[in-house]
Amino acid sequence: MKYKGLKIGNIETKIPLILGGMGIGVSGWNLASSITNNGGIGVISGVNLGYRENDFYTNTFEANKRAIIKEIKKAKEESNMGVIGINFMVAMNRYKEYVKIAVEAGIDIIVSGAGLPLELPEATKNYDTKLIPIVSSAKAARIITKIWDKKYNKIPDAVVVEGSKAGGHLGFKKKDLIEDDFDFEEVLKDTREVLKKYEDKYNKRISMIAAGGIYSSQDVEKIMKIGYDGVQMATRFVTTEECDADFNFKNEYLKSENEDIDIIDSPVGLPGRAITNEFLNNVGEGIKPKIKKCVDCIKKCNYKDTKFCISQALINSVKGNVDEGLVFAGENAYKSKKIEKVADVVKELFY
Q: How far, in Å, are 168, 256, 277 from residue 336 at the CA level?
C-alpha cells in the first residue's frame, strides 16, 4: 500500500508517522531526530528531562528547563531543522510553564494527553506551534474542541486517538483495558462527526492519528484503510539503535513474553501498561521503594501515600537499572526480538 504524507496545518511529512512520546528520556533528541530524518515527525518526551542534570534533585524546575531547551536544540540540529514535537502530560505540575519553555525554544508541535489539555492554547498563544491533543473517545474530543473554540478561538491541528493497547499511561478505566473492546473505526467515525463542524467553521482540516497497539506493517495498513490520516507509534522504536534509553531497558522488551505485559495502577492517577519485572513484583508484595527525593512532578501524587515514586522508577529504568525501575511498554512489546535501525523499521512499515 502506498501512503500519503501526514498533514498537520502547513506541515507535511513524507510518511504518515508520528513518534509517540516515551518518558522519562526514552524518546529524546536522538530517536526524535532519527524519525524526522526518515520522513516522519519525531517527538521528545517532555517529562522530567532534567534527570541527567547535576542539580535535578535540588533545582528541578531549572534543570528541566535547561534540558528541554538542550533537547529541542539538539533534535533540530540533528534533523537539519526538521519538524520536531514534544509531548507533555497534563498531569504534570507546572504544565503550562513547561509548554511555554518548549514553544519559546522553537518546538514545532505539542502533543498532550494524560488528562484533557484544556489550557494548551493559552500557553502557546502568539506562536504558530501545532497543537495535538490525545483522546480516547469522541466525548473527550468534544470537550476539548468546544472549550478551545469558545475560550481561545482555536481548534486542534490534529487529534491522536489512542486505543487501549498503548504503553505507558492510558486514558481508560482499568476494567475497560481488561475488557479490551476499543474499536478504532467506531471512535474515528464518532470523533470525525464531532470535529466536522469546527473544521467547517475554521475552514481547516483536523488530521486524525491512531495510536495504541500499532506495531507491524499490517497494523499500519489496517488503520490507514479505516480512514485515519496517520499513525503514532512508540513501542516499535524502543528496540532501535537510536532510542535514547539504556540497552538494559531495550533488553527488557527483547526478553519479554506476551504474559509479561501487564496493567498497573500508576501514582499519576491513571492505569498504565508495563513489563512485569522485579520492581513491579516487589511493589505488588507491598514493598515500597525508598524515595530519594520528591521532585513534585505530578499534580495528584502524594509521595507519603504512593506505592512508589513514578519519576524515580522511570529514571532508574531509562538509565539501565531495570530491577529498580518501571519499564512502560505497549501490548505488543513482546514481539520485539532484535535491535534495529530506525531507517530499516520505517522501510518495513511504510515502503
A: 17, 8, 17
Query: How many separate helices (H) and strands (E) can be counted in the chain?
Result: 12, 13
Three-state DSSP state, 297: coil
Instruction: State how far the alpha carbon of 68 is from the alpha carbons of 44, 163, 217, 247, in Å.
Output: 9, 28, 32, 23
Question: Under a CB-based contact definition with an 8 Å cutoff, are residues 52 and 63 in contact?
Answer: no
Its pTM surpasses 0.90: yes
Q: What's the CA gap between 153 and 147, in Å, rounded? A: 9
| Overall size of the chain counted in residues | 351
Three-state DSSP class for residue 89: strand
- φ and ψ at residue 91, rounded to 5 degrees: -70, -10
User: What is the set of domains in the chain, with CATH numbers?
Assistant: 7-244+337-350 (3.20.20.70), 247-334 (no CATH)
Q: Position of cell 504503553?
A: 167
Distance CA 331, CA 158 (A): 24
181-216 pLDDT tens trace: 789 999 999 999 999 999 999 999 999 999 999 999
Q: What is the DSSP letter of 51?
A: G
